[in-house]
Predict the 3D structure of the following.
Amino acid sequence: MTASTKSTPTASSGPAATEAEPSFEDLAERVDRAVEAAAALDGAAGEAAAELQAAIEEVHRVGLRRIVRAMRERPETRELLFTLVDDPVVHLLLSLHGIVRPDPVTHAQQVLTVVRPQLQSHGGDVAFDHVADGVAYVRLEGACNGCSMSAVTLRNLVEEALVAQVPAIHAVEVLPNEPTPTLISVESMFPRAAALPPGWVDGLGTDDVAPGALVAVHLAADDGTGADVVVVNVDNRISAYRNACAHEGLPLDGALLDVAAGTLTCPWHGFCYDATSGECLSAPGAQLEQLPVRVDGDRIWVRVHT
Ligand code: FES
């Protein structure tokens, strides 16, 4: 959009109340067809289509973020925002723009879409099956099967991508065609180094997080990475979580910490968590992303990435 094309926004009268709206499936199919058609364009036409898509998406992303932020900040509009986010079309739109977190199945499939070309370039592939109790079940094909180094490498690629990028997934199990399903724990994939490795941040003083307190803070590591984090103190037990509810990924700044019950309740739709483990008590299998914590003297260190 150039300056010369700008015009003063005016209120639209909107669609007539009786106008039939397309279904969620119709809308999703139309988007899929358009994306497929654009991807099939060659050369300059393909580049122009991609740029048009990116430009429109960026306008929508920025606008939607402003709308959601404004509605979230005002008590009188927050309830309406909750209702809207539960609408499948609105949820799809917001998750496409990274404003709410997609459900674990959608999120896992998005992650596999990204790693799949690398697998296919080595003659392998992966098929997503389902998620249950925080475990993603996948089937591996072609060069991903077997015991060769390359097969193990490709399998690790899938497993690490899912565990690292989908907070609700903490392990991956490979379904047959593997002879024996393999359960991979997060601990075995990320062994602890002897001294503080990269990613640890001297985040807060112990005085900043008194017993019964919940503190939301952005922590930045020396390597430029960072994370929005909530730190809670339950009877002097300090726990840190990525500041994103396992339900929609919305922030937990205003969460209710109930020390007596040992629970943390999300202010958005009421998902209730064990405050010291992050396990969701409202939805089995959901989990806050817990970050490693060390208390050294009067300082609280948090590892914001591995
Ligand atoms: S975002 Fe829905 S309960 Fe937290």
Residues 70 and 115 are 35 Å apart (CA to CA). Helices lie at 24-39, 43-73, 75-85, 88-96, 104-121, 149-165, 186-189.
